[in-house]
Amino acid sequence: RLAYVNGRLVPLADATVHIEDRGFQFADGVYEVAASLNGRMLDWPQHVARLGRSLRELSIAAPMSDAALSIVARRVLAANRIRDGLLYVQVTRGAARRDHPFPANTTPTLVMTARPFDFRVRVAQQKTGISVITHPEIRWQRRDIKSIALLPNVLAKQSAREAKAFEAWFVDADGTVTEGSSTNAWIVRKDGTIVTYPASENILHGVMRGTLLALAREHQIRVEEAPFTAADALDAAEAFLTSTTAPCLPIVSIDGNRIGDGTPGPVTARLAEALWSEVERQTGW
Ligand code: PMP
């Protein structure tokens, strides 16, 4: 495997950054994960746009133009001979003597890696459904920035792993489900309306969330961007999650409580089908 580090493709094992990189010392950086299917990028412009926004919000200079970024992304995928896989892009504020304020005259660090990923695993999970647990919302208040500071997400995902669940849903002090540790959270109300937390500073604006919202509207499924509670989720007809790496997975249990009849529901199935059609339209997968 080859990695891109600050202008060069190097063997992954030899790919290194400075120990005074601000990503390493302060988690002062942002990232993206994008999917390649059938050798083509899915929703790539949205990922580039979100990366640009994350960088601007933190006043980190863009390491290169969007067009150049796209060329490097292609090179990294091609060099690793990846058709179905995931591209990881990380930009930090760069290396400088350790001191909290932004350093003057540092160049940002840009790193890209790619690995194969078999999306057929997700298609299989769509048929069986997955479980989630709830976890206290312990994150900061700018979750719209795709920051590499992921310790709360790591702890939540580990709790899920230990409970043999796929994902952990963050629940804030008033019982509201914001999102999962690496996915956006959805329910289908008994009247058929799909509900997901509003795009705000409180959640990451998932690319798959945006794609699914657009598809739902196209298919005349009623959509509400509104907060829902863990209790609402337990009372819902269906629940599901979305992300680049788990495009649309039905949730059949939350904290060990069955959702609906404990099997994937029809609205989620319809949305998943619409999503895979969109994937096929974009990539031919
Ligand atoms: N929420 C969080 C906290 C995430 O980390 C992710 C994935 N990076 C998502 C949602 C899903 O975003 P996307 O659909 O862009 O993969």
Automatic annotation (TrEMBL):
Q: Which family does the record claim for this protein?
A: Belongs to the class-IV pyridoxal-phosphate-dependent aminotransferase family.
| Matches recorded under Gene3D superfamilies | 3.30.470.10, D-amino Acid Aminotransferase, subunit A, domain 2
Per the record, the pathway is: Amino-acid biosynthesis; L-valine biosynthesis; L-valine from pyruvate: step 4/4; Amino-acid biosynthesis; L-isoleucine biosynthesis; L-isoleucine from 2-oxobutanoate: step 4/4; Amino-acid biosynthesis; L-leucine biosynthesis; L-leucine from 3-methyl-2-oxobutanoate: step 4/4
Q: What's in the keyword line of the UniProt record? A: Amino-acid biosynthesis, Branched-chain amino acid biosynthesis, Pyridoxal phosphate
Supply the enzyme class, top level. transferase
Give the record's GO biological process terms.
amino acid biosynthetic process; branched-chain amino acid biosynthetic process
Name the Enzyme Commission number(s) assigned to this protein. Answer: 2.6.1.42
Q: Which NCBIfam families match?
A: PRK06680.1
Q: Does the keyword Amino-acid biosynthesis apply?
A: yes
The cofactor named in the record is: pyridoxal 5'-phosphate
What is the protein's known function?
Answer: Acts on leucine, isoleucine and valine.
What catalytic activity does the UniProt entry give for this protein?
L-isoleucine + 2-oxoglutarate = (S)-3-methyl-2-oxopentanoate + L-glutamate; L-leucine + 2-oxoglutarate = 4-methyl-2-oxopentanoate + L-glutamate; L-valine + 2-oxoglutarate = 3-methyl-2-oxobutanoate + L-glutamate
Any one Gene Ontology MF annotation carried by this entry is: branched-chain-amino-acid transaminase activity
Q: What is the lineage of its organism?
A: Bacteria, Pseudomonadati, Pseudomonadota, Alphaproteobacteria, Sphingomonadales
Q: Give the matching Pfam families.
A: Aminotran_4
Organism of provenance: Sphingosinicella microcystinivorans
Q: What is the protein named?
A: Probable branched-chain-amino-acid aminotransferase
Instruction: Give GO cellular component annotations, separated by semicolons.
Output: cytosol
Q: Which PANTHER family match?
A: AMINO-ACID AMINOTRANSFERASE, AMINODEOXYCHORISMATE LYASE
